[in-house]
Write a structure and sequence with these properties.
With 358 residues, the chain is of the alpha+beta class. Helices cover 53% and strands 21% of the residues. The chain has helices at 3-18, 37-43, 47-50, 55-58, 61-77, 122-180, 186-214, 217-222, 224-239, 256-277, 315-325, and strands spanning 22-27, 32-35, 81-88, 94-105, 111-120, 243-247, 282-289, 292-299, 329-334, 340-347. It has a 5-stranded antiparallel beta sheet, sandwiched between helices. Helix 6 packs antiparallel against helix 7 and helix 10 (256-277) packs antiparallel against helix 11 (315-325). The protein is elongated and about 125 Å long. Bound molecules: adenosine-5'-triphosphate (ATP) and magnesium ion (MG). Magnesium ion is lined by residues 268, 271-272, 315.
Length: 358
């Protein structure tokens, strides 16, 4: 044995012992000449149990058949092959591998065997699948968002037309008739004017309500806490349900995207608690912890069934997406008969620097 032979051997050993992938060398008959430590670990065998053996002596038949076939393909074509394969590991879990097999040649260029490497890509496969699923979810959400916007516009148009349009018409008719009819006694005129003032007052409050439903200006002017106070009060009154609001610490002045997200998430959670939870009581709590601001919506209703989170409805998916879009997260916990808790976590880094305008 020459010095270089020994050095080659050491080099080969160092490589095979340290490479994180399954790797091997096989002769023309597909007999293993050398395998990496990761290979032995994955198969749960020792080197002596593998060296000199063929795939059908170490692998289950259906896998071995594929390996022998691809070995033959590489030997025959003299070309490198790359493919993805899946197989169950020793615990029965399905794993994905990316495998490359190449011909191994001697000095004269004759093919004397194959060299292979197989990399575990299970994680990558899972994140690819997740990415595809989350794209589909986003498309679904943005479609639904567009439809919701259209129907919201239609609703506002209807309200403007039916409520404000009609009261303005009524006011105009009154004014025209006052102008054209015979002069009336002062008391009669005063009575007509009082009626008109009443109609105008109602219109002003209608207008306020429509505008607030569109976008609670209070959110921009007074911040999240004040807006949530308004929200819990309005929803509580409409649903005849006590909704309490407690902030353990002052909420940071979040940027508009973050505070809008928090507001809409709490709004959806409250709507769900009223609509599905049949709750008797709802609490909204805010606190600061671990570099984040946490808002919890806790109801004592029938408890969300965890399987309904994937039922293709939009509320919960929309909450998650909104939270994610501002760097936050949502957790929804429910137990049958023991209520539901929706927890929003917003990183404090979404707060505005001190002294900046609200
Ligand atoms: N607080 C809750 N208590 C009990 N069940 C709930 C609660 N919140 C949600 N759920 C269940 O989870 C399902 C999904 O909620 P989600 O908000 O996604 O959809 P939705 O309210 O049915 O429809 P929308 O798209 O109008 O919000 C609901 O249909 C309901 O069965
Ligand atoms: Mg909902």
């Amino acid at each position: 044995m020459t010095v270089t032979d020994a050095a080659d051997r050491r080099l080969r050993r160092a490589l095979l012992e340290n490479i994180p992938d399954m790797a091997w060398l096989k002769d023309r008959d597909s007999r293993y000449l050398a395998v990496s430590a990761t290979y032995l670990e994955a198969l749960g065998v020792t080197e002596t149990e593998v060296i000199g053996k063929r795939p059908d002596e170490v692998w289950p038949p259906e896998v071995a058949e594929v390996y022998l076939r691809t070995d033959r393909g590489v030997l025959k074509s003299g070309k490198r092959r790359r493919y993805e394969e899946s197989r169950r590991d020793s615990s029965g879990e399905l794993r994905w591998y990316e495998t490359i097999k190449s011909p191994m040649r001697d000095d004269s260029g004759r093919i004397i065997g194959t060299v292979g490497i197989s990399r575990d890509i299970t994680r990558r496969k899972a994140s690819e699948a997740e990415l595809i699923a989350s794209r589909a979810e986003l498309r679904r959400l943005s479609g639904a968002e567009q439809r919701a916007r259209e129907s919201e516009r239609a609703r506002i148009a209807r309200e403007l037309h039916d409520e404000l349009g009609q009261t303005l018409t009524a006011i105009k008719m009154q004014l025209v008739s006052m102008k054209t009819r015979e002069p009336e006694p002062a008391e009669a005129v005063a009575a007509r004017l009082d009626k008109l003032i009443g109609i105008v007052d109602r219109s002003v409050s209608d207008l306020r309500r429509i505008a607030t439903e569109l976008r609670p200006l209070i959110l921009d002017e007074l911040g999240l806490r004040a807006a949530l106070e308004w929200l819990t009060q309005t929803v509580g009154e409409a649903a005849q349900l006590p909704i309490s609001l407690e902030f353990e610490a002052a909420a940071p002045a979040f940027d508009p995207d973050a505070s809008t997200a928090a507001f809409r998430i709490v709004q959806e959670a409250l709507t769900n608690a009223v609509r599905h939870g049949a709750a008797n009581r709802v609490q909204v709590r805010g606190r600061r912890r671990d570099g984040a601001f946490w808002v919890e919506v806790i109801d004592d209703g029938r408890g969300i069934d965890p399987s309904s989170t994937a039922s293709g409805r939009l509320g919960l998916a929309g909450m998650r997406e909104r939270a994610r879009s501002v760097g936050g997260t949502i957790e929804i916990l429910g137990a049958p008969g023991r209520g539901t808790t929706v927890t929003l976590r917003l990183p404090l880094s979404r707060g505005r620097p001190r002294g900046s305008r609200r």
